[in-house]
Amino acid sequence: MSEERQNQLHIAHTPILGLGDRRFSLGRAAPDFTGRGVEIRQMVDRFQAGTVGTFLLWGMGGVGKTTLAQSVAHAVADQFPDALIELNLQAMSDVPISSSEAMASIIHAFHPDEKLPDKKPELRARYRTVLYGKRALILFDNVKNEEQVQDLLAAAPTVGFILTSRNALALSSVLSISLDVLPSSDSIKFLARITSSEVNNRNLSAIAKLCGHLPLALRVAGSNLTIRKSQSTSQYIEALEVENTRLERLKGKTITDDVKAVLSLSARELVHENARLAQRWQMLSVFPADFDKFAVAAVWDLISDSSRASGTVEEELTALIDRSLVQYDTNTDRYSLHDLMRPISREVFEYVEGHPLQADSARCIAAAKRRFAIFYCNKASEISLHHNKNDSHIRQDLDNIASEITNINHGQAWANRSRHLGICTTNLFGGRLYEKNIMTIRTTLINGL
Description:
By secondary structure, the chain is of the alpha/beta class. The protein folds into four domains: 3-178, P-loop containing nucleotide triphosphate hydrolases (Rossmann fold); 184-257; 259-362, Arc Repressor Mutant, subunit A, CATH 1.10.10; 365-448, no CATH class. 50% of the residues lie in helices and 7% in strands. Strands 2-3-4-1-5 form a five-stranded parallel beta sheet, sandwiched between helices. It has a two-stranded antiparallel ribbon with strand order 6-7. Helix 7 crosses helix 8 (201-210). The longest helix has 28 residues, at 361-388. It is globular.
């Protein structure tokens, strides 16, 4: 193993709490940790009941997977007197830590000077022997895929594991917990703790919303408010309101506190592994709000092939969900991009230097915008037609307006700006101002119920 690789492994497994003892390398619990009560109880109760198991925490970058894992591990530390180990498997690096390197690192946590076998079967056997009978809890942070950890999880039943990953992983006997952003109330509490309540609730709520309730963004925003006294809270909010530069305002002093840098790692990984899917993800950046699969089929130009469209759209959306790049609401059967992920999606090919599809990005997005505008202008026209005919689709049209108002408005506005592209909008709603007319239709529909 090269010296550079040895240094990389040392950084991934640096003792923090154990005064140099690598058996106790668990990172400190965040003192201002907020929320996640359901997930904490679910995991802690299982550990404290004497049921040693394996948990997977997965979700988008910056959602707080590692922080939650560390908090849970500290809460159950007395259940694992032999070891509390944290090992970063570096999923987003060019060379993630292999399962063999991880096993060697765990073995050396107990026996630092042991010479290890070169062949993987013998190394795997030694790994299991070392952990046999140990009451140990191991946090494997930043897992890339199933292959990386399958051998690592085949240890004694007395060993507990917590995994974190940006990807949904299919692992047997593992309880998978998908982490979403924080609820609004917890976001505000978290910001208040960081800023020591120096900011009023109204401003805290505005900042939390602009941060998309993403824990990393909230922490960076709160720290910036505390440190940068030359900028007032209202000025900072105004700066965050500009979507094109918002991520530049969510940058701390280190790379791990740079929201754009953290989120772009997922984009970079997608481009490396599936450039065609990355291009499809880029097209989704034209949606200003949540959307359904039919709108996706239109934007991806799959409507003409309806026999294949539905399956392809759902499969590829699922692939993006599994990478934490698209969000899905089971209650509404609708999809969305996180607000902070949208600009990352738009620039996806910029995160891989010299990628050939980067030059095609502007054309690809323009074509997606045109298809987006046509789809939603047609949807608006259908609603108007039903209204003018005094049709019986009242409930359906009202639901359409409620769920699609933002997309329809953006599609209409973009089409009006781009009439030279051949999108006919002048006759929509009898040529009247769209927003006024759609609200009139909405009021009429409500009165008709």
